[in-house]
Automatic annotation (TrEMBL):
The gene is repSA. This is Replication initiator protein RepSA. Pfam families: RepSA. InterPro entries: RepSA (IPR046828), RepSA_streptomyces (IPR048241). It comes from Streptomyces olindensis.
Amino acid sequence: MTDTATMAGLDPATLADVLRVAGSPGFDRIQEQIRRTGGCSDPIHLQGSTVTRDAITGTVLHSYSTETEPGGRLRVACGNRRASRCPACAWTYAGDTYHLIRAGLVGDPDKGTPHTIRDHPRVFATLTAPSFGPVHNRPGNRPCRCGTRHGEDAPELGTPLDPATYDYDGAVLWNNHASELWRYFTIYLRREIAKRAGLTQKAAKEQSRVSFGKVAEYQKRGAVHFHAVIRFDGPNGPDDPPPAWATLALLTDSIRAAAARAAVDVPAAGDQPARTLHWGTQLDVQPIGAFGHGQEITEQAVASYVAKYATKAAETTGTVDRRVGNKEALVLLGVPDHPRRLIETCLDLHALYPDRKLRDWAHMLGFRGHFSTKSRRYSTTLGALRQTRADYRAAQQREALGLPDPDDEEATTLTLAHWSYAGHGHTPGESWLAANIRRDIQHNREIAREALADLRSEGVHDHE
């Protein structure tokens, strides 16, 4: 347990609970449970039991019940992807996203992509929202339009120069329809590819496939934009080489043309005029260089960048990370003026567009899509990565208990389990303990990462 010096700053109630937990008979097991969750901030509590029997003789080979656990409960990780909610689970989610994206760039046979995927044309594209009014920014070496040279962390960055004329309605509706705009972009992308290849859409589909993995990110002004890895494959996916006509230049030109064509119509409602939503003019498309070829945008950098933003959401703009019931709550929560106005706009527009669920997604500034998505054949799935991890841990547990592998044809075991939800979260003292365990785990990971970097700098490389 962390030394007493670090407990000095605790409030009396938390300190009292830390001492209570530390002095409880089941403290060692509580600590072990929290460590097994990685220091999860809001673990799920389960009650139940599991029994493994020999299917032929009925002999009990192993049994477990939460009745022997402290408080009669077992803690499991919450699995929340948001770093603002649970840094521990968000770290795992970011790691999974990194391996998912990386597998679609460098290849990983265990994750459904061959190493020859590196020879396929692929780009890193960023599609942004249009302007809804001038905002404070840092335009290179020039001062902002307000005449000030803002610092990198200046709080006014991204806020409107004139809030009275800023199109808050347009900003919220754009966020709300951004996922549909992406869907239309992918439709037009395939059409533009066929057009430039001189083929019908059917013929182009029979000869090639476009795969992608993307992540959503909020700009400081509160508008969503997308970062995407877009790749050419053969008709059967990553195992197939793309046809000769499927070049990097053709892919790049097609992306630019598709982004220009994609549009979503929003009907008029109440005092709101009809709108046609488009992508912004700041479209960035850059080729991804294979490892060791010297290109500026590397596979490692792209995978790391996408993983970084997979655990972030609208709270990076100053809003909150959970639903807001009414406008009065925004004052109590201390939400800054610009995100507060965006949230208020969501609440106001909900009555005009009830099917868009703007009230439910007001804390997300209107955005209601998934933050990390991919096409079916890009690479593996997050679910598959989680299952692999679960299978590995289960195999470790079976080996420790001396139980046979259930996949073994000669195995004759039968496992019966019953679980029920029994709550979630920590007491104040457990929460403090979990935070310290999480920091220790993170520190150990950083040491291991630095050691690996040192080995690589000395010429020792891991196999791709």
